[in-house]
Every structure is written in C-alpha cells, then in structure tokens.
Amino acid sequence: MHSNIFAVTAALAATAAAFDCNGPYFSFYNRRGPAMSSQRLDPALFPGQQSPHMHDFDGGNALSADVTYESLQDSGCTTARIKPDKSLYWRPALYWNGNGTGLYPVPNSFLKIYYKFGDSDNTKAKNISEFPEDFAMMAGDPFRRSEDPENKAGIDWTCIAEDYSRITAKGFPTGFTSCGQGLTTQLTFPACWNGEKLDPKNPNAHMAYPTNSGSGVEACPEGFQAARFPSIFIEFWWDVKVFDGQYSANDNPWVLAQGDPTGHGFHADFRNGWAKGVLAKATSDDGYCNCGCGCGDDQMRECFGAENVNDDADISTCAAKSALANETGVVEKLPGCNPIQDGPGEAKAMSGPDCTADVPAPGGDDASTPATSAVASQISSIASEASSAISSIVAGVSSIVASAEDVQPTAVSDYLSPTVSVLPANVDSSDCAYATTVTVTPPPVTVTVTASARRHYAAHRRHGRHN
Ligand SMILES: *[C@@H]1O[C@H](CO)[C@@H](O)[C@H](O)[C@H]1NC(C)=O
Ligand SMILES: *[C@@H]1O[C@H](CO)[C@@H](O)[C@H](O)[C@H]1NC(C)=O
Ligand SMILES: *[C@@H]1O[C@H](CO)[C@@H](O)[C@H](O)[C@H]1NC(C)=O
C-alpha cells in the first residue's frame, strides 16, 4: 500500500510531534521500507575511509566515502521526497541482540524529515539561510551511555503499539514485547553556525542550538550568529514486528552499531546536497513553505513544483551507486571495533586486533571523536608523507616503519604539519640507516619513522659503476 503513505504517516506523525503541527515548517518522508544503503562510511567525520561503525543512509545516491557537494549533485536519484535534495542523512544502524544467535539488523520503515524555521513563538524566523556547499553537521554523541540532562537534540525513543499507545524513554524503552506501529527515535540538529567547517576532531563545535529569546539569527548564542539555518528534525522509524514475542517486557534487546545498548548514544549526521536556491526559496520570508507536519503530496508539489517531488516509485528504486556493503545482514559481532559497552560512563573507543585494547576517549561531552580504527590508516599516510619528505633530501629510502604510542583517537592527519627533521647532509655513507621523528601536535602523538637507506645506497653505488 505505497499509494497512501502520506495519509497514513501524516496521521502517525501528528501524534508523534510534540509541537504545533501548523507553522513555519515543512516535512517529508523518505521511502517506506529499507534505508537507501547500509555502509561503514561516514563522509563527515571520516572522509575518504571506512568509518568505525555501520550507518544507515538516505538521500542522494552518489554516496561515497569522499563525497563532496559537487559529487552529490551527480546523484541520479534521492530517497528524500524533494528531488533537488541530494543531501545525505545518516545514523547508526540498529540491531536486535535478543537470543544470542547474532546481531540482527533492524529494518528501517521510514524517516520523516522536517525543516523548521520558526522562532520560539512559532512565527516565521527572519533571515534563515540555506546551507553552504560542503556543509556537514551532526547531532548527538555516539560515546554517551547515560541520560544527557541537557539533551539539546531532544533524543528519545518510543515504542508505538498497534493501537498507537506509546511507551517513551530517553534511552531504549522497556515494558513491552512488541511495537506494532514501530520503534521510533527522533532528534533535532543544531541551526546556529559559527562560520567554520566541521572539525572531525570536535564535530559539534561549529554549531549551536537556537535559544528561546530573540528572533531569527539573533536567537542564536553569541559566536554562532554567522548564519541561522533551518532546524532539521527527523523521526526515525523501525519495523520491529519480526522480533515480536521474542523478548520479555524487562529485556532490552536493542543495540546501536557503535556498541551502545542504552540508546543514549543515538546520533545522526547531515551533509548538504540541496541544489542551490531551493531551500532558500522554501524558507524565504515571503512565500515560504508552511505545510507543517502534515505536508501532503499536493502541498509538497505546491511548495517545490510538481516536477520536483519524488513519488514512491522514484524513491523505492533509488539505490546507492557504489556499495561497500559486505558487512550487512546478520553479524556475529558489530562491524568494526565495537564491543558492547554499557553505561553510565562514556564509552571508550576500542582498537587492537581483538577490539579489546581501549583507548581513552578525550574528555568533554562535545569531543565525540572518531575511534581508532581510522588511526592506522592515518599513521600510514603520515609515514608516506614523511617518506616523501625524507626522499627529497636523501635520494632513496628503502623502507619506512611507522609506529605510534598513546595515539589518541583523533584525526591525526589534521594535526600534522610535519616538522620532519631528517639527518643532516653529512650522513655517514657507511651507515645510512637512520631514524627520524615526526612530532605531531598536540602531544602525546609521536610517530617515529625509521628510514633505512642502506640497501638503496648499495644499489645506487652498483648502478653508478655501470654508468
Ligand atoms: C535580514 O536580512 C536583511 C536582508 O539581507 C537585512 O537587511 C536585515 O538586516 C537582516 N536582519 C537580521 C536580523 O539579520
Ligand atoms: C533468534 O532470533 C532471530 C530473529 O528473530 C530468529 O530468526 C532466529 O530463529 C532466533 N533463533 C533462535 C535459536 O531462537
Ligand atoms: C569489506 O570490504 C572492504 C573493502 O574491500 C574490506 O577492507 C573489508 O575487509 C571487508 N570486510 C569484510 C568483513 O569482508
């Protein structure tokens, strides 16, 4: 019954939304059914590489590890309702861990995405900006394992029974053995910007939530008035029927992909892919789109133009162009280094061949840092950077061995302005093995690069004789 998705889900969402359903915002659904793709990627915090844990993605199908605004524009389709919205929306995959036979990915049933641009009194906020190209942000903290007293993102979870009765909690709720209409969570992204790019080491630093006083960009906290964007609010719905009756009312069988059995570590990311001008028009002071939380097909067409609204068939056939999807399906352990870590303390980023060696997560609630699985590849890129620096001075380096101690789970390469101090020119040719140290700030990250030039020099000398 794809045809009446709007009618059905608008009714559900109306009960879910804890705010006036009429006002300066619009909302839309992605497809009913699975996410566009499940992949161990995070094109905001871990560009160009595999990410520490599994995410479910929706949005533009040009999804890739190193996606840019430009490359997203080449998406052939999007699972967002509005065609010019090639943005990416992702969140950790959810698993069912209820009978000790493996971790079962919980099927997505749909997302409802709202773009809200009202002041606290529900009037249109002035001076709403569209997102810049290559803009990304996140909400929530993957390392959190206990209730956040502030909870600015407003994360909570609800089991919605067949008769629409609801059990809600800040973390995973208990007290039921089925959720006929679905298990849901929701969050709001921040909307006030400090003008900087997302810093993978501190991915929440460039954004803040609007306050209740002031209007438009003036409601933004000091330091975050470079722009006020629409507030993106998302309801995430999962279909958990397949697990009905297989857990008791006291059990918590759910776990998030980063090894979170509490639900407090739910988070989501957004990467802008809106075609230029479209969001600006839909949120402009005159003639903004205001179908609220019950936008129907016709209203979306009115707001964005009939040709710009995906129908369900467009969406359900939209698959990711490239798929690194070899860790999907039932798994014995969570993909990546993600042992299940209960609260209430912050979870630690894990590393090592058995995913046991723990690495201290840097302090601070905002420091939701990438985990160590990325560090190895960063060490090797430091090594190769050092290698080429050394090679340019000493003609020929046969091997570079990089090792690191006390590596913080951060994006090491961001710190690297390599002060590669290589041996002076008067290197003793009878012993060309030497070591040099690349010091990466801040401490305590020190990468020792040992370069052995001996064999190459020998080869070079032999070669020289023939010449
Ligand atoms: C809003 O934008 C208009 C036009 O760019 C500008 O004149 C006005 O000062 C802005 N208002 C605020 C509150 O920033
Ligand atoms: C465990 O749960 C899964 C998912 O519901 C089910 O498919 C499987 O048959 C169950 N296995 C056992 C041994 O109960
Ligand atoms: C999945 O594919 C990637 C890229 O080819 C590879 O690095 C990784 O080891 C694979 N994972 C598994 C579990 O096969």
TrEMBL record:
Q: Give the signal peptide range.
A: 1-18
Disordered as annotated region, ranges: 335-371
Does Ion transport appear among the keywords?
A: no
- The DUF1996 domain, residue ranges: 42-274
Zinc-finger as UniProt keyword: no
Keywords noted in UniProt: Signal
Q: Quote the protein name from its UniProt record.
A: DUF1996 domain-containing protein
Organism of this sequence: Pseudopithomyces chartarum
